[in-house]
Design brief:
With about 200 residues, the chain is an alpha+beta fold. The chain folds into three domains: about 60 residues, Nucleic acid-binding proteins (OB fold (Dihydrolipoamide Acetyltransferase, E2P), Beta Barrel), CATH 2.40.50.140; about 70 residues, DNA polymerase, domain 1; about 45 residues, Ubiquitin-associated (UBA) domain (Helicase, Ruva Protein, domain 3), CATH 1.10.8. The protein contains nine helices and five strands. The chain has a five-stranded mixed beta barrel with strand order 1-2-3-5-4. β4 and β5 form a beta hairpin. α2 crosses α3 and α7 crosses α9. The longest helix is centred in the last third of the chain and has 13 residues. The protein is globular and about 45 Å long.
Length: about 200
């Protein structure tokens, strides 16, 4: 099991990134909560990871905090929640906000995340109550904020589609952000805030 990677960021295309570790490029997928705090391409980063082995692929997921990784690991144990939905959840809602949703049984907030229907939201609330005790350490691991990527609108669109939004919905969310010069991360953050009604 690969538990962490440390190296230089070689590429960023939300939600995918590549980290060069001693000449080997590790392809990773990360939630937007981690992406927002990644340094620029060429800078060094240290990320916690979780390896998911499928019949057709080995996928390495990256996280900026232990709390995010713990929540991801708990989420993928819930029936009907795979890594893609867990990634979308972590992208659309913070660890703390997710905990509040479970404690307050806020099904409506959870169903705003793509891929989460009412039944899945109910199952999450029931199954995650006892597991949440392990997810409340928001300690950051070697992450320094730096933004700016080329073609922010198209990269933000690609990231939203990769997170499970339909193309038309992704376009609508990005239009709702309004005019201005925004980085890819900022566009995604504002679009996700619009989707969750915050």
């Amino acid at each position: 099991m690969i538990g962490s990677v440390r190296g230089r960021i070689a590429a960023k295309t939300p939600p995918q990134l590549m980290v060069d570790v001693g000449g080997i490029g590790y392809e990773l997928e990360a939630p937007m909560s981690t992406f927002f705090h990644l340094p620029a391409i060429g800078q060094e980063v240290s990320l916690l990871t979780h390896l998911v082995v499928r019949e057709d692929a080995h996928v390495l997921y990256a996280f900026g905090t232990e709390a995010e990784r713990r929540l991801f690991r708990s989420l993928i144990k819930v029936s009907g929640v795979g890594p893609k939905i867990a990634l979308a959840l972590l992208s659309g809602i913070s660890v703390e906000a997710f905990s509040r949703c479970v404690v307050n049984e806020d099904i409506t907030a959870l169903t705003k995340v793509p891929g989460i229907g009412r039944k899945t939201a109910e199952r999450l609330i029931v199954e995650m109550r006892d597991r949440l005790k392990d997810t409340d350490t928001p300690a950051s691991v070697g992450i320094v904020p730096v933004p700016e990527l080329a073609n922010p609108e198209s990269e933000a669109f690609g990231a939203l589609v990769a997170l499970g939004y339909r193309p038309a919905e992704a376009t609508r969310l990005l239009k709702s952000v309004g005019p201005g010069t925004h980085s890819t991360e900022e566009l995604i953050r504002r679009a996700l805030q619009g989707a969750s009604g915050n």
